[in-house]
Amino acid sequence: MAALAATAGGALGAPAAAEGETPPGQVDFPTQCLEPQEAGLPPADGRTTARITVDDPAPRVGDTVTVTYQVLRTPALNPVGGELPADTLTPAGRILLAGAQSGEVTVVGARRNDPVPAGTPLPAVIMTGTFTVTAPGEITLAPGAYSLHTGHLVDLDTTCTAAAPAGAPVSARLTATGLPTANLRTVRLAAAHGRPGAGVEVTAVGFPPGAAVTVAGRAGAAQTADRVRATADDLGTAVVELPVTDRATTAVIAYEGAAWSAGRGSGPAAYTVVDAAPPTSGTQKVTATVEPGALGMTQAGEEITLGTVTYGDGGAAPGRIGTVTVTDARGGPAGWSLTGKVTDFTGPGGIRIPGASLSWTPSCVAAPGSLSPCTPGSAGVVGPQGALLAATPDAPLVGGTFTIDAAVTLHVPPYTPPGAYTAVLTLTLS
Q1: How far is it, in rounded angstroms, from Cα 271 to Cα 264?
Q2: What is the tens place of the pLDDT at every residue in 219-266?
Q3: Where is this chain compositionally biased, Low complexity type (predicted)?
Q4: Is the pTM of this model over 0.90?
Q5: Could you give the domains of the chain?
């Protein structure tokens, strides 16, 4: 579980175009600007030159993207009777989203301008805002209506909209990618050993409901002749008895499709075929069985407290998960994986920060004497779909004790209302 608090605010700037060049994405479109009634001026018709830029052209779903809307030329005129003093013009506008994600982004600018003589066009302005990516694919951004507020003597608003029926042309594009998903397919055995031909009850979990599941024996990386098929129930679980007749079988796996793959199959569960053949005449056969142990984990603490961020600025709230210790005493060839997923963060009045805003950088250390190397998961988004925290590979013989940790960061959007925001981080060992 994580909590954060927020206080005060700030503003963002926009990049300038190179002098003498037409920046990529600069567009020009017919515009009508409605002057305020108090000014006694007719509508101003002309063309707007604008440009939209984004700080990240290839975000992931759940990322917050900062957008900048530059109005480089406007037909809107100074609405006051005389010169408009410096720093009395405040712009605001909208950016229109289409494609994989639709909607509007509100952008605002600072009150900053040089003096404007009476009857001349208002100057160029820069406005910024943010939005959260909610769908993968190409998203287009086009200039929407903008307003120019002058606060000299009286408050006056000039509103400008595209005069063409189709609106303003697309000025920027970005391509969003989906969040990575973790493979949660696993198998559990009712017994870890048996005589040749004995059946072992196998429970395969984490499969799509209704999927055709193959449960099979395995010797190292090769599949043995032991094999049965089942159908996953509405919870994605298949329970089946597998007769183990091949003495080479050292593990049991489950998978979808024609053959096992890392993306659609479980990791192996260790199984030992105990040969109880009678001794030859004149000799005595002595058999000792080493019983496999269990795979388990413990975690330090029940809460994660993240750092605070400043209201208005937003930004990164850092922290660490409670240290996790994994003990693998099963023997056999099966490695393990530890995955995590997080719910949305819920704050005052039900306001939410997407779970996909939480990312981590995992680390993993194997204790001296451990047979398996421990590989940390990749740094990146955790999210509600889940991500890999750490894992050990399959090998002829595995086991050991492993310490797993991760630095976590919650990316808080600017102007998130102040208060504590909480979510639940769930770790699954398989």
Answers
A1: 21
A2: 988 999 999 999 999 999 999 999 999 999 999 999 999 999 988 999
A3: 1-25
A4: no
A5: 15-176 (2.60.40), 186-273 (2.60.40.230), 295-429 (2.60.40)
